[in-house]
Amino acid sequence: MRFNLMTTFLSATAFICFAATDLQANTIISGQFYDSAALNGAATIYSGVEPDAATADSQFHNSNIWNGLGISYYFAGGAVSFSNLVASTGANTGAGLIISEVNGAYNGTPALPDTYAFAYSPSTFTFSGLPSDQGFTLFLYCYDELGNREEVFTVGASSFDTANGNPSSEDPVSAVTGIITGVTSATGTISGTWAAGSSNNSLSPEIDWSGFQLDIASPTATPEPAAFALFGLGLFVLGAACKWLPRIRA
């Protein structure tokens, strides 16, 4: 009887303690740039799992809802920003993206990766509103129809040069993909640069960014102090019960 009581109580208390922890899955944010003016036709925003990203990072198997990031082809040039990005679940993450220099967007075809934002000069980009000090994987989609628009993305010590990219299974002729990894800052940001590569011989030169998927690791969950207090109280009550139970039975 005493053993069964102890086992049941400890199991229940442990369940309550661990249920009180803040366990969360990784946050996945996916985005596709497109021409909101639809000069060459309207874009179709991707949805669901994109196979190249899912092969590179198993967390992208959870991708579902994507953010459509519209920029007009006729944009005069300058900074663009996108706020309240949603996660793959559709939940508002509170995250945002700012790109310091963009000259417009174009829909080569309606679908990713053939819709893209373009720029004629080096630019910076910043994701904000993310969990702080957490590992991330940034999967990038880049358009390069003629093979002469090499571009380089850099975040800290990690970089992706499209000259070494993998052909996109969505359009292996005109687009490539690649990865950047790192850790978010203490203020929950990812900041990097987007610039033409040394072999980019297009006019201006032009660089084209189709979209991205961002996988942010969840903070390590730890039991709340109240959970520890509950567990301690449970042990105290259990000890008292085990002490007095034989006397009651007698």
Uncertain runs: 5-23, 226-231
Number of strands: 14
Mean pLDDT: 86
The helix content is 10-25%
Q: Which geometry do the CA atoms define?
A: globular
Protein structure class: alpha+beta
Q: Total number of helical segments?
A: 3
Distance between the termini: 14 Å
SSE pattern, N- to C-terminal: HEHEEEEEEEEEEEEEH
Radius of gyration: 25 Å
The major sheet is characterized as: 8 strands, mixed
SSE topology sketch:
Layout: H1 2-19, E1 27-35, H2 51-56, E2 67-71, E3 78-86, E4 92-102, E5 104-107, E6 115-119, E7 123-128, E8 135-143, E9 151-155, E10 158-161, E11 166-168, E12 171-183, E13 190-196, E14 207-216, H3 225-249
Parallel strand pairs: 1-2
Antiparallel strand pairs: 1-14, 3-4, 4-7, 5-6, 6-14, 7-13, 8-12, 8-14, 9-10, 9-13, 11-12
Please give a structural write-up:
The chain has three helices and 14 strands. With 250 residues, the protein is α+β, with helices and mostly antiparallel strands. The chain starts with a helix and ends with a helix.
Task: Fill in the keyword field for this structure.
six-stranded antiparallel sheet; 250 residues; globular; 40% strand; 20% helix; eight-stranded mixed sheet; 3 helices
Short account of what is shown:
This protein is of the alpha+beta class and 250 residues long.
